[in-house]
C-alpha cells in the first residue's frame, strides 16, 4: 500500500511539474497566434471598411430605426457612442480601422490590440439588429489576444526586435516589462482560453443548428441561397442550389465541422481532417454566402490549432516560392537607385552648380 501510494504521489508530482513546465517554460503556438492576429485584424478592418459609406445608417445618427432593439438591450456598450455627432463617430471609426491595420502589420501590436478591441465594441455594439455571432467571436478573440504574444512572428514588432538584437542593443522596455516566466504563462493561458472558447463556440453553433427544423430537413442553406443579400455571385448560388448532392455535402460539412470540432482535435490525423474541413466550409461560406469577414474571423481561431512545426514548413515554402520575386524586386530597386544616381550626378548637380556660379554670383 505504501509503495502504491508513493507511486501515485510521484506520478501526480511529475504531472504537476510537466504542467508547470508547459505553462511557464516557453510560449507555445506563437506562429499560430500570429496567424490569428492577422486574420482577426483583417476581419475587423474589412468589416469596417466595407461599411464605411453607410456608417451613419447602421451605427450613427441615421440608425434611429434600431432604437426599439437598443431599448430592450442590456449591453453597456450601447452607451459608448450614444448621441455623438457624425464627426466624432467618423473619427472613432477611422481610428479603429487604423488600429486594426496596425494590428495586422504587428506594429505596436499590444496598443493596437487595445484600441481595436475598444473601438470594435464601441462601433459594432451600437446596433444589435445587424450584429452576428461572428462579432462576438471577434471581440472575445481580441480579448484573449491581449494576453498573448501574437506579434513574435510575422510582424513589424518582430522585425524591430531582430534589428535591435542584430545591432547588439538591449531589449525594449516592452520586452523587459514582465519576467519571462510570467510573459510565457500569460501567453499560454490566453492560448488555452482562446482554444477552449473556439471549441465551445463551434459545438454550440452545431447544436443550435441541429435543433433547428430547417437544418433537420436540409433546407437551411437552400433558403439562405435565395436571399438577395446572400447571393454575391448569382450563377454560383444557382449552381449550388440546383445540385442537391453538393448542397447536402456542404450541409453535412458545416454540421460535422462544428459539432465534432472538439473531439476530432484529440487525434493527430482527425485534427488535420477537421481543420481542412473547417477551412473549406468557411471559404465556401465567404464566397457563396457573402460572409467574408465572419468566415475570416472563424478561420483565424480555427488555424490556431495548426502546429508551429507546420507553420514553419509553410513559411519555408512561401519564402522559397517568393524568393525569385523578392530577388527581382531588390535588383530592380538597385537599378532604380543607380538611375537616380545617374540623374543626380549628370543632371541635378550640374544644374545646381550652374545656378550657383552663374546666376547667384551676378
Describe this structure in words.
It contains 18 helices and no strands. α2 (30-50) packs across α7 (133-145) and α16 (268-288) runs antiparallel to α17. By secondary structure, the protein is mainly α. It has helices at residues 2-24, 30-50, 55-58, 67-71, 86-105, 109-124, 133-145, 156-166, 173-176, 180-210, 213-216, 220-225, 234-242, 244-259, 261-264, 268-288, 292-302, 308-359. The chain folds into two domains: 8-225, no CATH class; 307-362.
* Outline: globular
Class from helix and strand fractions: mainly alpha
**How much β-strand is present in the residues?**
under 5%
Number of domains: 2
Largest sheet: none
Q: Gyration radius, to the nearest Å?
A: 26 Å
Query: Mean of residue pLDDT?
Result: 82
End-to-end CA span: 110 Å
The level of helicity is: over 70%
Low-confidence stretches: none
Order of secondary-structure elements: HHHHHHHHHHHHHHHHHH
List the total number of helices: 18
Number-wise, the strands total 0
Task: Break the fold down into its secondary structure elements and pairings.
Layout: H1 2-24, H2 30-50, H3 55-58, H4 67-71, H5 86-105, H6 109-124, H7 133-145, H8 156-166, H9 173-176, H10 180-210, H11 213-216, H12 220-225, H13 234-242, H14 244-259, H15 261-264, H16 268-288, H17 292-302, H18 308-359
Helix pairs in contact: 2-5, 2-7, 2-17, 5-6, 6-7, 7-10, 7-17, 10-14, 14-16, 16-17
